[in-house]
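P.,

For your records, the input lines for the assembly:
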Amino acid sequence: MENLQLILKEYIAGDRSNLIPILQHVQSDQGYISPEAITTISNHLHVSKSQIFGVASFYSQFKFNPPGRHSIKICLGTACHVQGGDFLLAALQSEIGIRPGETTEDGRFDLERVACLGCCALAPVVMIDKVIHSRVSVIKLRELLTSYE
Ligand code: FES
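Structure tokens returned:
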């Protein structure tokens, strides 16, 4: 993981047009935008922390929690919604105790909702790490979760 200061050295101080590239660089290097990163970027670009947070929260590519060891993406696109995606999300939230955008306290899972994973015929779909799980039921979901440490 690069040091934040090393990352910022690549971008001219005070040049606000660098905000998105810096956020992308930090996201890619550290896996999320930490409060410390927002403060450091704020000092470097002379942009308020609330402005940075406002910009970063507009784009789904930026995360504000450290990634878990396993990333769960639950699809709530039309096909998955119709096949019970919302019900699945509610069960998942209750099972692992977090909402989309959060990471479990033990760092085991992070959770994200997505609009479509491109395999609507297999709905409802859940992706864990890079693996697509199709026609997921609550029972299947519970079984799946036990196989990830
Ligand atoms: S709507 Fe879920 S995969 Fe397309």
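Two observations worth noting. The first strand starts at residue 70 and ends at 75. Strands lie at 70-75, 109-114, 126-128, 131-133.

Regards
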